[in-house]
Amino acid sequence: MVSARRGHCDDLAPDGRLEGKHRPSEVRGNAKGSVTGMSTFSTKGGLYERAQKRFNVSNGKRLFTYSFYEKRKLEALKTNRKIIPAAHQIILSAAALQAFFADIYAEARKAKPGLGHRALAQVAGAHKLLRHYTMNIDGLAEAAGMDTWHVDNNPAGQTVEMHGNINQLVCPSCGVVVMMTPALLRKLRSKKPVPCTKCNCRAIRCRIMLYDDAEDDVITPEDVFDIMEEDVQQADLIVWVGISFEQSASTAYFRRVSFS
Fold first, then answer.
1. N or C, which end of the chain has less CB nearby within 10 Å?
2. In a domain? residue 156
3. What is the pTM of this model?
4. pLDDT (tens digit, 9 = 90+) per residue, 90-102?
C-alpha cells in the first residue's frame, strides 16, 4: 500500500524507483522470510506450526501470547508446588518457553538479508527514506546496513523495531538490554533462567513483543509513537511492504498517531 502525503508522486521512475527529493516512510512485514532463510509465522512449517507441535497446543499462535506465559505459570504452581518451590517453578516454566525463542534466534543468526533488505538500504543510503518501521524481529535490516533507532542512543536511526529484536535479551524489571551470546544461548536452550546482572531480577527474557504483552514497555517504549507522529506529518508516502492487512497491528499503530 502507498499512501500519498505531502508533495507529488511524479518522482516515481518508470521502473518504480523513487527519484527527486521525496522521502517515504515504510512499514515492513515478514513476507520475505523464506527468501532470507528465516521462517515466517503462519506458513506451513513456520513458527506457529512448530510451536503447536512442541508445546502440544491447538494453535501455535498461542505461544506468542503473554497470557500463555501466565497460564503456564499457574499450571506449574498447581502441579509442582510440592516438588519445586513456587517462585522458582514460575521461572522454570518461563525458561522453557524462552528455550523455544532461543531456537528462533539461532535461525535468525543463519539468515541473510534478502533483495528487499538490500534495496531498502540503498534507498536509505540515497537519503530517500524518512523511517523504516518493522514488525520483524530478526535484525536483518541492520545486517543490510541500516542503523536502528533508539530513543536515547540513536534518535536519528532509520529502522524502528516495533516488536523488538530476537538478538537481544531484556530485563522486565529494570529494562536493561543485553546482546545474546553463545553462553547465554546455551543457558536458554538448557531451560535455565538467566538472571539480570544489574538489578538481580531472577530471569530476563528475549526482547520480542508477545500478543497483549504486559511487559511491552521494555520491548517498545512509548517514545516510538512520538517519532511516528512526527514521521506521519513529514512523509510524502507511507509504503506497506510484505504485510497482510489481516495483521491489524500494521495499521493500528499509524491510526493511533494519525488521529491523535
1. C
2. yes
3. 0.78
4. 455 577 778 888 8
